[in-house]
Amino acid sequence: MEALLQEIHRSIIEIRRRLHQIPETGFKEFKTSEVIKEKLREYEYEIEEAAQTGIIVRKKGISGRKAIAFRADMDALMVEEKTGVPYASQHQGRMHACGHDGHIAILLGLAMYLSRLETVERDIVLIFQPAEEGPGGAKNIVEEGYLDKYNVEAIFGLHIYPGIEEGKIGIASGPLMAQNGEIDITIHAKSSHGAMPHKGVDGIIIASHLVQAYQSVISRSIDPIDGAVLTIGKIEGGEARNVLAGKVRLEGTMRAFSPEIYNTLKRRMQEINRGLEMSFNCEIELEIRDFYPPVVNDPNLYSIVKDALGDKAVDIRPMMLAEDFSYYQQAIPGFFMMLGAKNEAMGFIHPLHSCYFNFNEDILIHGVEAFIKICRALGAL
């Protein structure tokens, strides 16, 4: 067992570095897909293509019980890499700045491990999924019916995370990540000379009232025990210092751990806008693009994973990040965890999506071992 894990460790580091050099964005992971297929064929799996550039394989069990699944995301980000590593991105303006190259390597490590076993007790399905960063390839996998096709009853995933010390795995029961949406607001006011403000309607004044009123939504419309975020991060408007702004645009983000709270945010924003329209005789356009649902871990799976991981598991608080793993959890019980990557001594402290993001590749085998332990805990091995 130990010798096999050492072999897997060496192999997945090499795989990760290959993948790191060829970062590709959502549904364009063509080179990435070919590397994954190459390794899976080496391990003698029968490959099924899914969701355009995704790949699904199965290790067939002997018991006839329902399958368990493990998922890795494949895509990269539009980020110019500045890590300076010898295996840095060869695709200018793109980078694996969120660790998905590591996620793929971990799942291929599990695939390699399973390929060395003569039999397993129940089906184990491995999903290599495109487009997590957007628009959400998990939704495609679910809608194309692969969970039903492979009779999957539970699914697991992980994310490399620099907010947790290396060697630990963060877990939570219930909400782990938030539902998120993007906000675009356009205020249509009336321009006039700054010396004659009574002849216009000042879009900047309206925007000021709007931003302050939105801030009251979290503090006055949401239970203080519940988490939510409503942030306006960008504002632009006006033509000159001595002209009332006839048009102002604002952009922001909203996040919550439950659909009910998320919908409350949307309702209150619309109500505030209507009030400002009446007060200032203006028009306010609001567009909210809903993205991923909240990631909510199944409590029963939490207990199983906590026992399986032992002292490597640490309970963590929910975070306002978002993940399309949530689409799987809407269909079947699922569990998502955070693989610790913080190592101050080695300088691995940069956040996800940073152009400097990197991690100690020794953590990859920890992810493989975690998946193996979950397989055992669920009677698959």
TrEMBL record:
Cofactor binding note of this UniProt entry: The Mn(2+) ion enhances activity.
The protein's required cofactors: Mn(2+)
InterPro entries: Amidohydrolase (IPR017439), Bact_exopeptidase_dim_dom (IPR036264), Peptidase_M20 (IPR002933), Peptidase_M20_dimer (IPR011650)
Pfam family, one: Peptidase_M20
Peptidase M20 dimerisation domain segment(s): 183-271
Gene3D superfamilies, per the entry: 3.30.70.360, Zn peptidases (3.40.630.10)
GO BP field: diaminopimelate biosynthetic process
Binding site for Mn(2+): C98, H100, E133, H159, H353
Keywords noted in UniProt: Hydrolase, Manganese, Metal-binding
GO molecular function annotations of the record: metal ion binding; N-acetyldiaminopimelate deacetylase activity
Protein name: Hippurate hydrolase
Source species: Fonticella tunisiensis
Biological classification of the source: Bacteria, Bacillati, Bacillota, Clostridia, Eubacteriales
